[in-house]
From TrEMBL:
Signal sequence residues: none
Organism (species): Lentinula guzmanii
Family of the protein in this entry: Belongs to the short-chain dehydrogenases/reductases (SDR) family.
Molecular function terms from GO: oxidoreductase activity
Identification of the protein by name: NAD(P)-binding protein
Keyword annotations: NADP, Oxidoreductase
SUPFAM superfamilies with a match to the protein in the record: NAD(P)-binding Rossmann-fold domains
Length: 335
């Protein structure tokens, strides 16, 4: 019993019964399984009017849509729209954002959930960037910038009575990044450091990408008024999902054993996502939420090295976004 208590995660309270998304348009990326699908169900159970889900292949999305609509707790006949989105590709991210703006006139909540967990060196064939860096950080960051104008316009159309939300799935594991103990030299760009195969450390890769997410959210929040758009991130904790599906069989087996003892169900873990992306207040702006509470940043982030990395990351990200989607930074009112 003692061992079980030591390994268990804190309980996640039920979402407030007052949480209601009637009249709202919500975007959830990576909605085909795990946390994304469970978050979609939470929104549907709370009367969301329009739910936008993204998947890499439209056929997968239509299957998920049918399953969600057939769920006995979904009774308000919502509109569910399926969009293709491949986060390994800049062109896919830009095409998705353009299509969304063309077809959707408002967006109240953007929950960027999609991500990968890899232990092998893999490069995106589209961008030539290391895949975990590309998917978990860079594409989500660029997508955030591209969605900002629509999120801001939605809040302004409502006379700023209720802010929109831009929420990204992060992880407390960011504090295990190799770049905390061994900061990137000033002579090396952050992007180059992540794309250096010689410096590849598989067990730090996921934490490294989530460190960038945490720094990006912290910096982006400085440039956006929370009365318009609340920017935050969240850690759902250890959850029973197929995030590690690309690992070798022995590692997957070991992972399943750990998950069976310690992990939350997707339904429970996704409560943390939905609370951040629709329930949290302006006090969550720029923060990481864990079980509905803001988790203080580790001291390193506020150190000279941490602040330098945050500034460099912002500059490189803005430059990359502008290079691939000219005019995006001006449109997002970040200049």
């Amino acid at each position: 019993m003692l061992a079980q208590m030591l390994f268990m995660q804190p309980p996640v309270p039920a979402l407030p019964t007052s949480l209601n998304f009637h009249g709202k348009t919500v975007l959830v990326t990576g909605a085909n399984s795990g946390l994304g699908r469970a978050a979609c169900l939470h929104y549907l159970q709370r009367n969301v009017s329009t739910l936008i889900i993204t998947v890499r292949r439209a056929s997968e999305g239509e299957a998920v849509k049918a399953e969600l609509l057939a769920h006995p707790d979904v009774k308000n006949e919502p509109k569910i729209l399926v969009f293709e989105l491949d986060l390994s590709s800049h062109s896919s991210v830009i095409a998705f954002a353009s299509k969304l703006r063309a077809e959707i006139d408002c967006l109240h909540i953007a929950l960027l959930n999609a991500g990968v967990f890899l232990l092998d060196w893999k490069v995106s064939p589209h961008t030539q960037n290391e895949m975990t860096f590309q998917v978990n950080y860079l594409s989500n960051a660029i997508l955030s910038l591209l969605l900002l104008p629509l999120l801001r316009a939605t809040a302004e159309a409502n006379s700023l009575l209720a802010p929109s939300y831009l929420s990204i799935v992060a992880s407390q594991k960011y504090n295990e990044s190799r770049f905390i103990a061994n900061p990137i030299p000033e002579s090396t760009t952050i992007f180059d450091a992540f794309n250096d195969e010689k410096g590849f450390q598989p067990w730090s890769l996921y934490a490294d990408s989530k460190l960038l997410v945490r720094l990006f959210v912290k910096e982006l929040a400085k440039h956006v008024d929370p009365s318009s758009v609340i920017i935050n991130c969240m850690c759902p904790g250890m959850v029973k999902t197929n995030l590690a599906r690309n690992l070798s069989f022995p590692l997957r087996l070991a992972g399943r054993l750990v998950l069976s003892v310690r992990a939350r169900s997707p339904e429970v873990g996704s409560r943390v996502l939905v609370n951040a992306a629709g329930g949290a207040g302006k006090e969550s702006h720029g923060e990481m939420l864990v079980v509905y509470q803001a988790l203080p940043v580790i001291p390193w982030i506020e150190s000279k090295e941490g602040e330098r990395m945050q500034t460099s990351l912002w500059r490189e990200t803005v430059e990359e976004a502008e290079k691939n989607a000219s005019g995006a930074i001006v449109a997002a009112s970040l200049l």
